[in-house]
Write a structure and sequence with these properties.
By secondary structure, this protein is mainly alpha-helical. It is built from 14 helices and six strands. Helices cover about 35% and strands about 5% of the residues.
Length: about 400
């Protein structure tokens, strides 16, 4: 199976990034990366993950290496097409069931970034500014985080969720990149309420980005980094896809099937009954399991109702754990050879145990199945940030500061 990101790049991302940009060109010269005149230490953070947008010119952070454009924390700007707020008022836009809204937005690759809200330069467009007075404002984001947001939305759009019903337990979850953009734009406006103009501080997030270190100045960030800040190391870990690595890490948690795997007698015929249902009923039952995360203690116990082959198929189709979207069955043989563990290729593998281990709320914390893998920890944190985003939720003092 090809990596999911490839298809996202070639379809969704391509659409998102190939629009004809409606910016009025401002052909200011790009800053000279070697010039100390351009030094700027104002921090700008990505609206998704809270990580810094790394400057490409002289700054507290990049004195010796101005060429950071290949780094995953290099910035991109995202901006809605003209008329976005009117588009949002149309009732049908509240639900994105099996729909993509990629064309409502532009993603603008940044050629040079010198720090601050007005430090963005794009080839052919000149200088671009993050200005809360703009009806369709530029918002800072990492390309990796756009990818994750699009994968998240593609998954959520399987369900019919009313984005504007955010006060109800089952509503409010964004299922379109346009929903997320609207949330991010409101957060930018509420970061400095009542003051419209270039935004000279990092955009707030109501959960404090689940423990990411956010400073106002790059020299403060560097100081924290130089004092061995564990959270910075995690938030700078690349959350991007790596099928072989992710498959390898997950398979380290493989267990053999216990000898007696029969379900509780009262459920013994349940699977057979489900299998006999017409497809539409069966699919509804299966869909009610998705996504499979944040399990309580009772749910982490294997029930043995479904056969191991069913669990295996759900794991590799990413239905249960959509954030592990790069898990790839085609990598299993390579992983087994490299680790000398052939269990995942044998019928004796306990796939239900593995699926339930991956769905525990502390999966990336100490004691969790994926603890110690920084890139996956960061991806899990970013996925939680996307999943918890709601219109009308804004920062308040005393929010969580615990990473992931
Ligand atoms: Zn980011």
């Amino acid at each position: 199976m090809p990596p999911l990101l490839t298809s996202v790049h070639h379809s969704q991302l391509h659409n998102l990034r190939s629009q004809s940009l409606d910016v009025i060109p401002n052909h200011a010269p790009l800053p000279d990366p070697f010039s100390q005149d351009y030094r700027c230490d104002d921090v700008v953070v990505c609206v998704v993950c809270g990580g810094i947008c790394k400057p490409t010119v002289y700054s507290s952070l990049a004195v010796h290496d101005p060429y950071l454009r290949r780094d995953w924390m290099h910035p991109t700007l995202i901006r809605a097409q003209k008329g976005f707020l009117e588009w949002c008022k149309q009732p049908h836009t509240a639900t994105a069931y099996r729909r993509r809204d990629d064309k409502v937005l532009h993603a603008i690759p940044i050629t040079q970034f010198r720090g601050g809200p007005d430090g963005f330069y794009a080839e052919g467009l000149g200088k671009l500014v993050i200005n809360t007075a703009d009806a369709e404002m530029n918002l800072p984001i990492h390309a990796r985080c756009i990818d994750l947001a699009l994968i998240f939305c593609r998954y959520q759009s399987r369900f019919s969720i009313n984005f504007r019903a955010f006060s109800t337990p089952e509503g409010g979850i964004p299922s379109s990149i346009a929903h997320l953009y609207e949330i991010w734009m409101k957060r930018a406006l509420m970061t400095n309420p009542g003051l419209l103009g270039p935004l000279h501080q990092p955009i707030d997030e109501p959960n404090n980005y689940f423990g990411a270190v956010v400073t106002q100045k790059l020299y403060e960030y560097r100081w924290t980094l130089s004092h061995d800040n564990y959270n910075i190391a995690l938030q700078e870990a690349d959350p991007g896809p790596s099928s072989l690595y992710t498959t390898h890490v997950v398979m380290l948690r493989s267990h053999p099937l216990p000898r007696d795997v029969r379900p509780d007698p009262k459920y013994e015929t349940l699977w057979e009954t489900i299998e006999k249902q017409p497809p539409e009923i069966r699919n509804r039952i299966m869909e009610s399991l998705e996504p499979f995360d944040d399990l309580g203690i009772e749910e982490t116990r294997c029930t043995r109702i479904a056969p191991p082959s069913w669990w295996k198929a759900r794991l590799f189709s990413h239905d249960l754990h959509p954030w592990l979207y790069d898990l790839d069955e085609a990598c299993l043989r390579t992983v087994c050879v490299s680790t000398g563990n052939s269990l995942p290729l044998s019928p004796q593998m306990d796939w239900e145990r593995l699926c339930r281990d991956m769905a525990q709320p502390n999966v990336c914390k100490p004691g969790g199945a994926l603890f110690g893998h920084a890139g996956l920890s960061n991806r899990h944190r970013i996925w939680r940030l996307l999943n918890s985003a709601r219109l009308g939720h804004f920062s308040s003092p005393g929010s969580s500061t615990c990473f992931t």
